[in-house]
Amino acid sequence: MSKAHAPATLRNRDPILDVLKRVLPQAGLVLEVASGSGEHACYFAQALENLTWQPSAIDADSRASIRAWAKESGCENILSPLHLDVLDEPWPIDHAAAIICNNMIHISPWVVTMALMAGAGRTLKAGGVLYLYGPYKIAGAHTAPSNQAFDENLRGRDPAWGIRDLDDVIAAAAANSLTHMETLAMPANNQSVVFKRT
Predict the structure, then answer these.
(1) Would you give the DSSP letter of residue 177?
(2) What is the dihedral of CA 138, 139, 142, 144, to 10 degrees?
(3) pLDDT, tens digit, 9 for 90 and up, residues 57-108
(4) What one-character-per-residue DSSP string does 3-23 give?
(5) Residue-wise over 76-108: b if at least 16 C-beta within 10 A, else e?
(6) Going by DSSP bridges, is the β-strand pair 56-57/164-165 parallel, antiparallel, or unpaired?
(7) pTM of the predicted protein model
(8) Distance (Å, rounded) from C-alpha 165 to C-alpha 140?
(9) Which residue, 31, 81, 90, 106, could crosslink 63 as a Cys pair with Cβ 3.0–4.6 Å?
């Protein structure tokens, strides 16, 4: 399979990278859950040379795309993508210094978010970082009319999908020893949400 391309990647990769440079550890393994096309993984790995990047995807086509992007990039700090379904236990990786997950929570059932938090709680050591990116409701309300329309579109495609309330995500994290550190408003009505393993 040739490289897949996600148009949003070019728009959001630099704002995300600015946050990652500040919140990720100086060294160690970063597990990216649901890496999609692999474009983010390669871009971040190139910019954060002291970190080892472990992309993952549930489907074979995405893993093939990740491998193609990684080969083209020539990055030596990006590992071969793992098959990772967050619902599986245990995960195919024992520990990580940080976990990032972009744009997954709203296009999956709530049980997937719960499994992500449980897996992060098992996989991160004390002080490890969980970084999430995507659209969220804040205090039960959408942050923009476009997000409300997007939410309705998602639920029309699958009633189990939808933009989550950030308070619910924070509570799910807290139940797995993940403390909410900060939320940052991002372009296109998205949020960066940072947790730390206690």
Answers:
(1) T
(2) -60
(3) 999 999 999 999 999 999 999 999 999 999 999 999 999 999 999 999 999 9
(4) PP--HHHHHHHHHHHHHHHHH
(5) eebbebbebbbeeeebebeebbbbbbbbbbbbb
(6) unpaired
(7) 0.96
(8) 6
(9) 81
In the DSSP assignment, the letter for residue 88 is S
Task: Report residue 159 as tokens.
Answer: 């009633």
pLDDT digits (tens, 9 = 90+) for 122-151: 999 999 999 999 999 999 999 999 999 999
Was domain 7-197 assigned CATH 3.40.50.300?
no
Report residue 9 as tokens.
């990647």
- Tell me the angle at which helices 166-174 and 110-123 cross, rounded to the nearest 10 degrees: 40
- How far apart (Å, rounded) are the C-alpha atoms in residues 20 and 62? 23
